[in-house]
Amino acid sequence: MEVILSTGLNGFSLREVARRAGVSHAAPGYHFGDVRGLLTAVAIEGFQTLNDELVRSAAGIDDPIERLKAVGRGYVRVAIEHPAHCEVMFRDDVIAADDANLAEVGFAAYMVLEDTVATIAERYNSELPVRDVARLCWSTMQGLVELQSKFVSLDLMLARSSTSLDENVERFTDLIISGLLYRPEMMPLT
Amino acid sequence: MEVILSTGLNGFSLREVARRAGVSHAAPGYHFGDVRGLLTAVAIEGFQTLNDELVRSAAGIDDPIERLKAVGRGYVRVAIEHPAHCEVMFRDDVIAADDANLAEVGFAAYMVLEDTVATIAERYNSELPVRDVARLCWSTMQGLVELQSKFVSLDLMLARSSTSLDENVERFTDLIISGLLYRPEMMPLT
DNA sequence: GATTGATCGTGACAGTGTCAAGTGAAATGA
DNA sequence: TCATTTCACTTGACACTGTCACGATCAATC
Question: B159: distance to nearest CA of chain A, Å?
Fold first, then answer.
């Protein structure tokens, strides 16, 4: 994590890892087989903490809409507190995307989200396309985390005050949730 | 683009580019100054075509909601037709994210989206937070493009038939648009 | 007490980005 | 017209990288 944070994933190198660990230059390669293997292990660890955090965020909140908001906040909390992990987790070009363990723990994390959406459907709107909504939420969070820095520089160009990641999460989830409550018969298009 | 597509951004190398161009190994470095410089040029080209495509997608469509849908479709069309460019455009670790030309053309592309949302606000819902909605849309599209492959393997695990990128765009935009039409007084949260 | 397996260290190889120096042709200026 | 400068490279070198084969050490096991 140190190496990823200081040099970026780009300048990451097994030999630098070895240097900081005080071992020979080939030792990391022996353990993880590969640079890909090492980064895959990092990604798995990342998904594990994501899963833990989402479960913890959702726990004890009865209203599923509030629970969805909490899950969203949990997602960006992981992004903020574990930036090195998150830089790796979705980078299929540097990890073994077909690794079984990776798929399993990623699946678990996703399911926390889908379950929450399913409860919203039960309680508020039975016509809700659960799977689509869950993926919409995930895509939005992921895109937000990735684009946040662009948004900041965009605000700079427009001389507008910029919005923090946390605040953007709140706004985005509110906007999405509005959509979950909408039914066509409520209001025709003009 | 050839090199990026065949070896991935990970295995990308100036020397391979030089080989395919039939020039000496240092020639690309001379032209672009740097591997970062070359990839920044690619990103600028990518944002330029994105901007062109979004403008073309939006042109001639009167209803702003239909226009927003068209812009969304345009976004993923660029992602599909120019995968090499898109792999670079948002990778701030390998490009010069503070490049002035890059910021300018990226800004232009974003503004097509924000203008469309502004028109929706004018016509349908004056209380719409235009900036937030525009960024919600962009984040969602970006996240979707990035996560699509994960969604496919997720469907595989769940033994569900998977959804194409185009279809996901349709569904996501529909869900977002529902939210844009929603007003709290329409339906209380019971 | 010999063997085996794991955990490394060492050295080598091909490949990489980048830099300094050289090279030849085209453009420029007198 | 001819010297000079600029441009677009080429060449060669350096430090760095991942990965591999080969040894060395050492604890556990038979």
Answer: 13
Q: What is the separation, in whole angstroms, between the first and last Cα of chain A?
A: 53
Place of tokens 């895109």: A143
Q: Is the alpha carbon torsion for A124, A127, A131, A132 positive or negative?
A: negative
What's residue B183's pLDDT?
A: 66
CB pairs under 8 A between A and B: 155
B25 touches strand D (CB under 7 A): yes
Q: Does A183 touch chain B (CB under 8 A)?
A: yes
Work out the average pLDDT over A84-104: 95
User: What contacts A53, CB < 8 A, 6 or more positions away?
Assistant: A74, A75, A77, A78
Q: What is the pLDDT of residues A10-44, one digit of tens each?
A: 899 999 999 999 999 999 999 999 999 999 999 99
Are the C-beta atoms of residues A1 and A20 closer than 8 Å to each other?
A: no
- Judge: A172–B139 Cβ closer than 8 Å, yes or no: yes
Read off the pLDDT of each residue in A105-109 and give the average, rounded to a whole number: 96
Please give, rounded to a whole number of angstroms, the shortest distance from the CA of A173 to a CA of chain B. 9
> Phi, psi (5° rounding) for residue A110?
-65, -35
Nearest CA in chain A to B180: A179
DSSP string spanning A26-84? THHHHHHSSHHHHHHHHHHHHHHHHHHHHHHHHTT--SHHHHHHHHHHHHHHHHHH-HH
How many beta carbons lie within 10 A of that of residue B176, not counting itself?
A: 22
Residues with pLDDT less than 50, chain B: 188, 190
pLDDT at B55: 98
pLDDT of A102 above 80: yes
* A187 in B contact zone (CB under 8 Å): yes
> Which tens digits make up the pLDDT trace of A36-66?
999 999 999 999 999 999 999 999 999 999 9
A172 vs B: CB within 8 A: yes
CA dihedral over A156, A161, A165, A169, signed as positive or negative: negative
The pTM assigned to this predicted structure is 0.92
Please give the pLDDT value at position A156: 92
Q: Which nucleotides of D are covered by protein (CB under 7 A)?
A: 8-13, 16-21
The closest of A122, A117, A110, A109 to A133, measured between CA atoms, is A117
